[in-house]
Structure formats: C-alpha cells, structure tokens
Amino acid sequence: MSHELSAIFMSSIQGKKIVLGVCGSIAAYKSAFLLRELQRKGAEVRVVMTPSAANFVAPLTFSSLSHNQVYIDMFPDRGHAASVGTWHIDLGLWADAMLIAPITASTIAKITYGIADNFLTSIVLALRAPLIIAPAMDADMYIHPATSSNISKLKERGIAVVKPEEGDLASGLSGVGRLAEAENIVSKVERFLENHGHDLVGKKILVTAGPTQEPVDAVRYISNRSSGKMGFAVAAAAANRGADVKLVTGQVSLETPRNVTREDVSTADEMLDAVSRHIGWCDALVMTAAVADYKVLNPPDRKIKKSEFGGNIAKIDLVETTDILQSISSKKGNRVFVGFALETDDVLENAAKKLKSKSLDMIAANNPQEAGAGFGVDTNKVTLLKADGSTEEMPVLPKYDVAMRILDEVKTLLKGGNT
Ligand SMILES: Cc1cc2nc3c(=O)[nH]c(=O)nc-3n(C[C@H](O)[C@H](O)[C@H](O)COP(=O)(O)O)c2cc1C
To answer: How remote is the C-alpha of 379 from its chain's centroid?
Structure first.
C-alpha cells in the first residue's frame, strides 16, 4: 500500500460526514483547500456559509467542490424554500462532526450564547456531533476580552479550538489571528474524531465536581476554592465519547455539559448521599470534587451574633465528615474508581498513600501552587498514579485534554475486566 493510500485508510476522517462551516473572514478562501483535504481523507462534506461569508467566496466554489447544495439562507425565496425546509436540524443530525473554519469573532460570540440567527449558527445548536472551530481574525479582535472569554467558555463545553497562528494579517498588522494551516486543522479534526469515536458508548460514568459548603450558621459557610472546572471537563469529555454521565456537583457557576445529567448538592453529607444513591448505577466513578474533611458541629439555623463567637479569637467546633470513598468501598466490585489528590507538599507520596488507602484504580495528583495547575484556571498539570505502580507525568494541558487522558485510562481499566 502506498504511503498516500495508507494515510487515507488510517484516517479517522475516512467515511465520516462532515459539515464545513465558513464565516465572513478574508481567510474564507482557505476553506476550499480544507474541503479538498477533508475529501482526500475520505470524508463526505457539506458546506454551510454565513451570509457574510458569501461576500468573500462565491458559494459556487463550494457547491462545485462538494458536489452538493451550499446552505446559506435560513429563509430563501419562497419558490426555493420547499427544498430547504428543516435542513438546519437535518444537517445537525446528519453530521459526524462539524468544522467551522474560519470562524469569526462574531460567530464565536453567537455560538457562545446560543444565538441561532442564520443557517450556520442554527446547525450548531442542533448538532449532536463534536464541533471543531478554527478562528481567524485581526489580532486585536482575537485578544479582546470578549473573544477570549467566549473561546474559554466554548472550550469548557468540550468544543475543540484550533489556535490561530502568528504572522502577517490581512489588516497589514502582524500578530496572532491567522487561520491555522490546513494540515493542522485537519489533523486536529482527525485527533478529535479518534477521541470522539464514541468509544465509551454503553458505559455509565459518575463524576463528582466542585467544592462543598459546610454551614457555620444560617448565613455563613466554610468552603474551598474549587471551581468545578476539572470535573465538568471530565463529564463533558465522557458524554462526548458516548458514555451515560451523571454529574454530582457542589455549588459552581458552570453550564451543564451537553448530554450530562446533573445533580446539585451543597454539603459533604449531601455529596455522600448522592454518590451513595448513584454508585450502584455506574461502571466508573471519577471523584474530582473537593469535599470538606470537616463540618461544623450543630450549626444553628439562625445567624450567630458576632458577640456569641466569644471574643477576638472565635472558636467553632468541627467534626470529621464521612469519607465518601471509604463509605462506598464495599460497592466497588469491578467498578473503576478514580480519585484526585490535591496536595501542596510531598504531592506524589501523599497521592500514592491515598491511592492505596482508598483502594483506587488510579489517582490524579496535582499541586495548585504550580503554574497552570489547580483551582479556577482552565489548565491543569497532573501526574497519574495507577494501582499497578505505573505513573505518568503530564505537561500543563487544558482541563478538557487532561479529562480525555484520564478517560483513556478509565477505558483501558474497564476493558481489563473491571466491569
Ligand atoms: C474585508 C473584511 C475582512 C474581515 N475579516 C474578518 C476576520 O478575519 N475575522 C473576523 O472575525 N471578522 C472579519 N470581518 C468582519 C466580519 O465579516 C463581520 O463581523 C461579519 O459580521 C461576520 O459575520 P459572520 O460571523 O456571520 O460570518 C471582516 C470584514 C471585512 C470587511
């Protein structure tokens, strides 16, 4: 088999149905090359353009190359409408993946907020398959806080973003914003489809996330800095890979990932109750929640007066909370249990102890004091320690990528006879 042929047969794009979205950017002409490359790798491609995009490249280019109608108008003239109908839904269901390249700042903002005011943005809402976006824009538009915060939100939802490159821009300026090279975009699509090969279909995964809040009285509580982002990334990634996912979360301000069943809790006791109720259902448990080790003894259901705390050194009695993993250990059986160890000292030693004492199959150790790791940030730096004694130190990665790696291991552990 020639090198070229083997590349075609190896590609995860082979035989896939891909919707290629094109937005109103000077880079829109590059989509024609992308379309050819996707076809060369064996994909069936349908093209959707925003009305703005049609100012940059003639739709005829894409209809000729894709041998198909190009979808642009949500409401074409009446004579034409019958042939379009609810294609925005149908294409969303038809696709194995959607790639929007280039995507503009405007369309990024629209899909962040679920605005469906043209054919392309409507498909995004109806889409059941993974979405990959490749932004292209002026450097100032790209680094604008609105754009970067929108891109972060989309990443949290599990949307893959192909970072634009640095170089000369159409504006005559230079900076980050040039559409990534076609081969980088296509290889991202390839990798994304490999990971989203629905390899966890039929698996039931229970994920815990976020902090717990332990009431001091009716208005105060003790908590921690967990943002819930790691657990939400695990839930989003597992759902994207076809698993049935239940997410038990402490109080966080994050959107529920698509196709994930969410249960909100507040205290460690409530988290224990929820995990105990769902443990019998799952094949694998991934515990990313930062559960309080102590709770306040008998918090009153009224506000404690400042004077009642007893002088300038206030005392609150704390009692240990029930250890969730220990209390469900009898239910482990063949289930895969993955924990997280957040440590600032002797990180790996402490994580190894926790792995053993809690009979986990794997633990992800991280130190919130390391750059790019821990609470609140979109990245994490994790070392995986497995029960067989092997370890894997990962670089700083987006939390979604860390989640994907953890799920690769969960998949292997499940195959290894754990269920
Ligand atoms: C010549 C020209 C080039 C443009 N290039 C870009 C671009 O690369 N990225 C971008 O975000 N907007 C760009 N714009 C602005 C978008 O076309 C504009 O925001 C439009 O409303 C986007 O619509 P759409 O997102 O529906 O395609 C450009 C505008 C012009 C006139």
So the answer is: 12
> CA 337: distance to chain centroid?
21
Active site residue ranges: 224
What amino acid occupies position 314?
A
233 in contact with ligand 1, CB cutoff 6 A: no
**138 alpha carbon – ligand 1 mean position (Å):** 9
* pTM for the full predicted model: 0.69
- The CATH number linked to 288 is 3.40.50.10300
pLDDT tens-place string over residues 358-393: 989 999 998 888 887 767 778 889 999 999 999 999
Domain match, 55 and 134 both: yes
How far apart CA 245 and CA 236 sit, in angstroms, is 9
Beta carbons within 8 Å of 48's beta carbon, 6+ residues apart? 19, 20, 21, 22, 70, 71, 72, 91, 119, 120, 123
Distance from the alpha carbon of residue 192 to the mean position of ligand 1, in angstroms: 27
How many C-beta atoms surround the C-beta of residue 276 within 10 A?
14
Residue nearest to atom 22 of ligand 1 (CA): 24
pLDDT digits (tens, 9 = 90+) for 334-355: 999 999 998 888 989 999 999 9
Distance from CA of residue 74 to its chain's centroid? 29
Enclosing domain of residue 380: 204-418
Q: How far apart are CA 247 and CA 233, in angstroms?
A: 11
CATH number at residue 42: 3.40.50.1950
